[in-house]
Design brief:
By secondary structure, this protein is α+β, with helices and mostly antiparallel strands. The protein has helices spanning 25-33, 42-56, 65-73, 77-89, 94-109, 180-185, 197-211, 223-226, 229-237, 286-292, 358-365, 369-381, 392-422, 466-471, and strands spanning 2-9, 115-124, 134-138, 143-157, 160-169, 218-221, 241-246, 251-253, 259-260, 275-276, 284-285, 299-304, 311-324, 327-339, 345-350, 430-432, 438-439, 442-443, 447-449. The chain is 34% helix and 25% strand. α5 (94-109) runs parallel beside α13 (392-422). The longest helix has 31 residues, at 392-422.
Length: 472
């Protein structure tokens, strides 16, 4: 087995954790002004800025409307009702804001070989009256439970990662006559029809491609998306390269079998569809192929993924032919990734060109984790799952504002890095955390230091004094 000692970098982790939202107001107001005209009415503009501020507030434990209003505006029932109406019934449109968001992500993170990540995230809910809620498998809980399911598309490059778009999955049963009253109460638009999660993912991928505001080359996803040959072919049709995990029972041909259109028997319609010639082999399961590989087929690589220690895994990659309608389809890459500790093997298919280097495929295999981290960031820090609205429009409004809040932190980190690199700041870039106060990945006492000589101008907490360090 060949061992590659080079550490393959994927993407840096989002490290910027802010202590006091009041110190963010200047950069937040500047950021929100980009989107302000798209909210239409002045009241919507003001409520949206307040809502994003609330999502970013570390002092609000549960980021639903009432706790945010209580913390930022005091006990004000009128303010609570106004924000509830803004979120659950507001006439502002999500699509224009999200499209502008893609342009801003291009400015912050865009690269020619950027990666779109598709994945689902579920939100446990009590009761049966929220839009699309159903007893179904809930990934957050790891079991069947009452929940709403969302499909998300994220973006990652060597510069960082964030979420781009989302769709609320409405189960097929919701479109039956028995749910007609419930659909109306949840304000599900009449034009919304049943779509599978993979169809929702494709709808977003196609929209991002059509907008043309954000550069990307790759699309990644887990086996729930990789098993869908229709989705893979749609991505390839647009000229992008998919890198999708596939189930162990996926079948491929190691060499292209011979096919031909059967001769006409003289009766009925003439055959038009080719068939495998007699004696040609059937396709092989990818897990069976993995068992037959010799040691020489594998190479060992070290990947740096996020905050984790470098991960060591064995890889094998070779060209195969995929299966379409029981016939050979396109020549693609089959990539195998084996955990050196457990021996577990994961399988991927990619339509990347034949000349693609193995190190590139290894790197892309490590570019799926950021979307899981986006969900973790969103749920632990930004209240992505704390909404208490039941309507379809309320769910989408909330998620749009969560997308903006997360990207605001990403932009701030990029500015932080830029100023740390080019400004003659006396102190080094660092994140000081009190581990005893850590909640998830985010510590309440974390402070960013070394942004510039003028921390207040940048809206970041001032660098800690020696006395502060002694207290920590």
């Amino acid at each position: 087995m060949k061992v590659n000692d080079e550490v393959i970098q994927t993407v840096d982790n989002l490290e910027l954790v802010l202590q006091d939202v009041s110190e963010l107001m200047t950069p937040l107001e500047k950021y929100h002004a980009i989107y302000a005209p798209l909210f239409g009415r002045r009241e919507h503009h003001e409520h949206s800025e307040f809502y994003v501020k609330g999502l970013l507030s570390p002092d609000v434990e549960r980021k639903s409307i009432e706790p945010m209003v209580l913390h930022l505006k005091g006990a004000n029932e009128n303010a609570v009702r106004a924000v509830q109406q803004f979120l659950g019934e507001g006439s502002w449109k999500d699509d224009p804001i999200r499209r502008r968001h893609w342009s801003e992500v291009e400015t912050t993170l865009g690269e020619d070989d950027g990666v779109l990540m598709v994945d689902g995230s579920d939100f446990p809910k009590q009761g049966k009256h929220s839009a699309g809620v159903k007893r179904q498998y809930c990934g957050q809980l790891g079991k069947r439970a009452n929940c709403q399911a969302g499909v998300f598309v994220g973006y990652t490059s060597s510069k960082g990662y964030t979420l781009l778009d989302t769709r609320l999955y409405i189960p097929e049963v919701w479109f039956g006559e028995a749910y007609a009253v419930r659909r109306k109460k949840c304000r599900i638009p009449e034009h919304v029809q049943f779509q599978t999660k993979n169809e929702l993912a494709w709808e977003m991928i196609e929209a991002i491609s059509r907008e043309g505001a954000l550069r990307f080359r790759w699309v990644t996803g887990d086996e729930a998306f990789g098993c869908d040959t229709w989705l893979l072919d749609q991505i390839a049709r647009l000229g992008y390269w998919y890198f999708m995990e596939v189930p162990i029972n996926t079948q491929v041909w190691m060499r292209r079998p011979e096919t031909a259109i059967p001769p006409w028997s003289g009766r009925g319609c003439k055959p038009k569809v080719p068939r495998l010639l007699k004696g040609e082999p059937s396709p092989d399961r990818v897990d069976i192929l993995a068992q037959s590989l010799s040691t020489d087929c594998w190479s060992r690589h070290t990947i740096k993924e996020g905050t984790k220690s470098p991960i060591v895994a064995d890889f094998a990659a070779f060209r195969v032919y995929n299966v379409r309608n029981a016939l050979p389809g396109s020549e693609v890459w089959l990539i195998l990734r084996r955990d050196v500790m457990t021996g577990e093997v994961k399988f991927y298919l990619s339509n990347a060109p034949a000349e693609t280097e193995l190190t590139t495929l290894v790197r892309i295999s490590g570019m799926r984790w950021p979307i899981e981290t986006c969900f973790e960031d969103g749920k632990q820090m930004l209240g992505m799952g704390d909404y208490e609205v039941r309507s379809w429009i309320g769910w989408n409004h909330h998620m749009t504002l969560c997308l903006l809040a997360h990207h605001f932190l990403v932009r701030l980190q990029q500015e932080f890095k830029k100023n740390s690199e080019f400004d003659p700041a006396p102190s080094p870039v660092a994140v000081d955390c009190d581990p005893t106060q850590e909640k998830g990945r985010f510590a309440g006492s974390c402070r960013c230091t070394g942004l510039s000589d003028h921390p207040q101008r940048n809206g970041i907490s001032k660098p800690p004094t020696q006395e502060d360090k002694n207290l920590n």
